[in-house]
Each structure stands twice: as structure tokens, then as C-alpha cells.
Structure prediction request, 279 residues.
Amino acid sequence: MLDQVYADGVGRFPVDVPVIARDFSAHRFAGDALTLVKGANLGKFDGALYRAPAGKSGWGIIYNDSIASKGRINFTLAHEFGHYLLHRLAHPNGIECGQQDMVRWDLAYREIEQQANCFAAGLLMPLNDFRTQIPAKARPTFHDLAACGERYGVSLIAATLRWIEYAERRSVLVVSRDGFILWARSSKSALKTGAYYRTVNRAPIEVPMASLAAIAGSGGRRLIAEHDDAWFGEPSTEVALVSDNYDFTISLVHLDDAVWRSWDKAEEEADTFDLMRRR
Prediction:
């Protein structure tokens, strides 16, 4: 629908979530529409979907106005719009979401948060356009992905996660802090060849000692290095960003081509990301 409205391309991106949320909900759900989108002090939460106070109809999307990143705010708004469309009837008292809810896109976390994130990614970063910016076989740097983040009005992590979804090459996104992996996401081809980290309900995993994630230090720098066997015991290219603002390091690890192997039963049952994709 948005592609048709902005057929000339002018004004298509970034998506104006508050305008679309209010207009669409008023047209589709008259009497139960989204009537309020604003910033407020939410403490530990990034965003929330709340029902209007007693005596009033409709819903409100509230984002944490202490968030400095406009891209993070924009994704939060789209995420809460997804909750409104998908989950408001099952959660009549509303939903509150923290930062972790915005970056975990897998079923192993919380299904409703994964669904809201998938909706937000589809609304803000449609694949038909994203694929024209970075091809599926590309080996992007964070400069390339940051340009997409600017185009779609989202954070670098959100843009990288979106590329990982359709990437045909073997690549792994790793987010770490103090030498330990917080969470990671593998492209489908990397996952199929065993290049992944399981972090849910597991003991902390140290980043490889020879990786940029281990030796980069601080300073908000973007770095790149070629490794012989630092990641997964095979040659790789690591592009890394040390974020002082958010106190973590982002590594995008590009691996060489490898022969695919079929799933065995134990792996298929254990890997929730691929199960989510099939569902």
C-alpha cells in the first residue's frame, strides 16, 4: 500500500509511524483507534502500549523520551504499533517493553515480542527495497548498514538484523560486552553449517581471544580485520563497532563459503530460530 502511495519514491522513507498508526487505526478500528503517540518518562522501559484512561476510548503508544537514538525511537514506535494490531485484545491492560524486547527477534525469547519486531521490521524496512540497497550475497560493512539505517530511520543493529534475515552468505552478528557474548544472530546459511552461538539459558560465552570484540577497547571506533581461525575455527572477516553510548561491541563476522549439511534431529529440535522461520 505504501509503495503505491509513494510510487514516485519521494517521501517513502523513513516511514512516519505516528501518522500511519493513527490514520490506519482510525479507519480500520473506529472507536478503538490509536489516538495518542508521545514521549514520557518510562523508567526501564523503551516503549509501551496503554489503553486510554477510564471514560475514554482508544489506545496510546508511549516511548521513553530519554532515548537519544532517533532510530531506536522509530523502531520502538513501530514495535508498539505491532502490539496494537496483534496483541491488544489479549492484553487489555497494555504491554510494556524494554530494550531487550526490541533486539530479540527469535521465538526463544517471547513470542509476542518476536512478532512485534517482525512487524516493525516489515513496516520500516521492506525487503523489496532493502535488497536493492544491499544484495543478499554482499559482504557489507557497518558503513553500508549504517546508510540503510539512515534511509529507514532505524538503528544500526536493527538494519543489520534485517540484512541477516535474507543474507545468502554465511554471516553472524555478535553483540558482546566485557569479553562475553550477550546474544548473536546467524544468517540461515551460517546456521546450517554450524556457525552460531546459543545464548538463551546458557552459561556466558567468551568472545574469541583474537577477535576485534576482545581487543578493540573503547572509543566508538569502526574496525575491520581478517582472521585465520578466530571465529568458528575458520577464516573470516570481522567488522566491529565499539559503542560507548550503549556499552557494547557489535561484530559482524563474514565467513567463507562452505558445504551445506543436512539437519540432524537433535539440532533441529534445539535451534529455535530456524523453527520460528518455518512457522
